[in-house]
Structure to design on (350 residues):
């Protein structure tokens, strides 16, 4: 079965902004307004949902958050939906979404972290491509070589784009958006590239043979994928059978906050649910993870999936440590890696 790509955005299209979980606190209102102005400056209209500017774990009551998504799914003028960020309460909406209605006239869905609860089930259950990698409230101008989601959602079907790891990242804390709501600068202050952790590369973790693999891209936030695995909302084996065929999969994993031992358990759960059975490579994000008992994150990755017989990379720009690659769930994806460069080329082919 072919992957379906939502129609590319053109000037004048509407971008819907709603918070299916955590809302935007009033003190961040100026910062939010700046992010919305950025969308307008790109030539698009902005439509705020009723669930957006709120406090606490929920931007609004559950019914309001669900209704926002339903209305935006059904509105043909809304060509992209971009939440400000994630939040733990999003998962409660997953069983209530109308996936069939969404598939009739799909719109681009953009976001990462807990927004995996939206992007992953939509792609798995409908075969429609979604975008992971940047949330609305990420203010950064990404480094050279990394695509902006606003550019990606304007690409036509069959288009290709290639991103290149800057082999550097931001090591410091998040910006204070209240003190400096106009910030767009990303300080990439620490060198660091992808690291191979599969058995074929260990102990030469930064080396090993050059890699050039292709597959259908799929993935999301570890804290969510490990929960959805084994349910119809996280059925990767079925997706691989229906949409990947002989191409196999490139699986990416965004690690947010859990400890190293929790990551080990989560990866084992995904493995038991068949997440890596059709994988041609795994891309695991850079993360700031609590080390438990001297058990490092690299050890957790290596011991849980390092023996799959495929390239397994850590320290990839697909998580909560900026910069963030823009990744299209469902896209045919080529990953290359050697001593000189690490690249991800995505082609929007059915």
């Amino acid at each position: 079965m072919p992957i379906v790509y939502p129609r590319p955005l053109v000037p004048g299209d509407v971008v819907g902004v709603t918070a299916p979980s955590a809302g935007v606190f009033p003190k961040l209102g100026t910062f939010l307004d700046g992010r919305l102005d950025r969308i307008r400056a790109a030539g698009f209209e902005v439509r705020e949902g009723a669930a957006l500017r709120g406090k606490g774990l929920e931007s609004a009551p559950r019914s309001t958050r669900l209704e926002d998504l339903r209305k935006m799914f059904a509105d043909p003028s809304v060509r992209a939906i971009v939440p400000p960020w994630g939040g733990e309460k999003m998962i409660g909406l997953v069983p209530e979404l109308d996936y069939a209605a969404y598939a009739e006239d799909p719109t681009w869905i953009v976001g990462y972290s807990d927004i995996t609860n939206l992007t992953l089930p939509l792609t798995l259950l409908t075969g429609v491509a979604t975008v992971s990698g940047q949330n609305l409230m990420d203010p950064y101008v990404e480094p050279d070589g990394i695509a902006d989601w606003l550019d990606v959602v304007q690409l036509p079907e069959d288009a290709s784009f290639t991103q290149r790891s800057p082999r550097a990242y931001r090591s410091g804390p998040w910006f204070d958006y209240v003190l400096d709501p106009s910030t767009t600068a990303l300080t990439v202050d620490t060198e660091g590239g992808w690291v191979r952790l599969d058995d074929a590369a260990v102990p030469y973790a930064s080396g090993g043979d050059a890699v050039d693999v292709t597959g259908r891209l799929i993935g999301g936030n570890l804290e969510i994928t490990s929960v959805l695995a084994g349910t119809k909302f996280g059925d990767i084996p079925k997706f691989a059978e229906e949409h990947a065929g002989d191409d196999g999969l490139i699986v990416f994993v965004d690690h947010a906050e859990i400890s190293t031992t929790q990551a080990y358990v989560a990866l084992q759960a995904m493995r038991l649910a068949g997440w890596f059975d059709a994988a041609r490579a795994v891309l695991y994000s850079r993360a700031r993870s609590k080390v438990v008992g001297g058990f490092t994150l690299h050890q957790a990755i290596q011991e849980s999936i390092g023996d799959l017989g495929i390239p397994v990379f850590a320290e990839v720009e697909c998580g909560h440590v900026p910069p963030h690659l823009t990744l299209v769930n469902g896209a045919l994806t080529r990953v290359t890696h050697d001593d000189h460069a690490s690249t991800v080329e995505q082609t929007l082919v059915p």
